[in-house]
Amino acid sequence: MKVKTDFKYVGTRPIRPDGLDKVTGRAMYGADLNLQGMVYGHIVRSPHAHAVIKSIDFSEAMKLPGVLATMSAADLPEPGDKKIPGGEVDFELKAFSPIVMARGKVFFHAQSVAAVAATTASIAAAAAKLVKVEYDVLPHVLDIHEAARDDAPLLHEDVFTQGVDPVPTRPSNVSAEIELKMGDLDAGFAAADLVIERTYSVPMCHQGYIEPHACVAQFDENGKVEIWCCTQGAFMVRTLTAAVTGIELGKIKVTPSEIGGGFGGKTTIYIEPVAAILAQKCGRPVKIVMSREDVFRASGPVSSSETRVKIGVTKDGKITAMDTDIIMDSGAFSSSPLFPAVMFGTACYRCDNIRSSGREVLTNKPKVYAYRAPGAPQPILAVECVINEIAQQLQMDPIEFRQLNAVNEGDLPLFGVPFQAIGLQEILREAKKHPNYQVALGENQGRGVACAFWINAGMQSSATINVSEDGRVNVLTGNPDIGGSRASMALLTAEVLGIPVDTIRPAVVDTDSIAYSDLTGGSRTTLATGGAVIKAAEALVAELRKRAAALWGINVEEVDWIDGSAVARSGTGLETLNEARANDGHAPATAAKSLTLAQLAAQAGVTGGPLCAVASHNAHNAAPSFALNMCDVEVDKETGKVEILRYTCIQDAGKPCIRPTWKARCKAVLCRVSAGR
Amino acid sequence: MQSVQYAAPTTLAQATQALQGASDAKILAGGTDLLVQMKLGIREPGLIVDIKRIPELTAFTLGEHGLHLGAALTSAILHDDAQVRARYPGFMEALGLIGSSQVQGRCSAGGNLCNASPAADSVPALIVNRAVCNILGPAGERSVAVEAFTTGPGKNCLGSGEILVSIDLPLPAPRSSDAYLRFIPRTEMDIAVAGAAVALTLDAAGVCTAARVAIGAVAPTALLVPAAAEALIGTALDDTALANAAAAASAAASPITDKRGTAEYRKKVVGVLVRRAALIAKARIEADS
Q: What is the pLDDT of residue A585?
């Protein structure tokens, strides 16, 4: 495959189209929308980690002046065994509906139990305190090992361990088990001169996005619902809200606001169906804003995990066997990234004999959600620590040890798809010669090295490009811009159309205004949504050539598209104009007829109507990415305080659309590393 | 539905009058604690008395008797004064550690004291500087030593209708200085796991003639630790003296175990901080002379 490497716009540093609004405070985030007649919802949350809900009494709350409506799970359809279509895998409605409103039982502290709507936020908060909920408190379990025991408090009567043959007859808090294998593990360990086995645990943490979840919902007389919210996926909100509320999907329109971070945590719904039902009941638009405390207590954190890693090596440093076993805490419902964890923990290293197993355990904690490369960091941390220990014991440089064992093009990882062109060896080479790796360490200082891997996703996206009468271009997509994607979409459009990037206005639009797009996550937006944008731009170029050909009365094959203009090849004596351009670096001779995008746009009315293009894309070409991080730290031996002295991040980033954004993202990762320590 | 009344008196007399009329009143200075507590539902006052418009509460003077500090004067304004920074470097570094730049523009030493957090950064530094709190109430004026002002977590000695008006820090003797250190796992914007303030006076030979040591976040209130000071007085701050002072501070600490640290860790680290703060104060004196 020929790879395009010379770009005019991609890789440049445009002014971010969303930048000015964000720095001036004009940008509209989730909580910023106010509608005429809007009222406020407040959620009643469980004070218990595990309890049966005996009754909910709204009578006192309803007496408070200003209270307009109440709701609970009784206002939502029974989930039963209904499935929510989720692309490749369907989701169980019964794992989503209770997060919106607990039904019969609460499974974690601060789970939503009821809600009220009132004319002011403070009346709603006061009314929520007057809702009387009677509970039968049950014993709870928070620890993964305790939860996995047969005598542990059982969360769900209808959860049977998946992935076990034969299917168990007793329900269990162990919701899934997986094992993947390659080669002969025993033979691999038998061939090893050194075997190291260690267990590492990673605590639960929260994605910690700066913007709490917020939404406004409005119902009209025809039963159409409009929802404005901060989310990583407007279509996801539409799908899940329809499933949870029973409102017809086609009657729901979701408009994503600007988003103040998500990091995987805004890939689900919490408050949107509540606002929708309250709005339906009181006939007024309803706003719900979660507090920071609500976010921490009740929205999906990241799986805590424990990983046992056993690695065997020969004395000359070749890995002969890798055995990993991970236990992941999923909170109260199955949602952990167990499968990626089991697949990707060993992905950086070539080894013929690998076994990777894992279990997902349910505990009385909030249901977990994705967080940056979901499932990968937990096992990779454990594997990398063991790799470092092995290198140390073999008295080998940790980067050289990795160079000996790193995967190359053609190697088959545990997840079964051979690697194509990958850059791990190049990363290691750069790391080895990086100045930061040569710095001599002082007293109480140490240096750590770790590799990382993420698969990257493709999936479905769509894009629409509209050309206005003056030749300016709107690029519409359905993916909330969480890291600069609007600028990327503008650059990709500029590249294909050959027009300045500042004549392109990118926008993220509502679910009625664009075809379906999967949510922003899994590092898929630039690839898949960008792919849709490129397709749409290419379709637009084809249309523009047709229009020019019609105006000139020649065949479309005689028209090229060069630097934002249609150019007639006929009469130039050239086979292709691109050849001529390659020769002197410019668009061809003035003798050739040409029409700019703006000229074509101005005449669109007489050449076939408005200029626009729509494309959909299902990307299957996601390439995995690798990284190496090295960090020098100094330890204060008296207080134990660790200070980061140097941090170096080397990534196989492919071709960054926007160079400064890519750099900023590297820095953001480092901020999280240092904040999380 | 609870409603909140708001009063913004411009004289102390008006303020004390407003406070006397209400049983559930709270005084608002910068609001960096009170407003957060109200948002979290921890406090639900019926009346808020904003004291920032009372001129003497936001003024300060530095003279021959020392620093006279209006209780609601913001940390940022005080920080702009080079002479105050030079006279009380430890107190000023403690006050400057509270919150962010934005918080510094609102918060005050008086507020930090009245909020009575055991981890309040400026309180140990006020204690080693022999600060005195001037209080006005229905029964008139009274003064208390700063170490007696806070009485427990979130509790202070103010009676009904009383206001902390000002804080007086005597002028340090010649060849004196102070220092404050706290331990946080991050680099900034955090609450102390343990804190220590030390004020020293050295003679021309470098022998410590006076010392005060106070520790924070390791007991229900910030503590003055006379035993740690005695370990330093009469010494040249040699390793043994510093180790003794550290041990005395650790012994005086009665911390709790919470999310910020274990009791055992806090007891150990507060001693380390005392030793290091003493060395900083000593270095400051030496640099000045």
A: 47
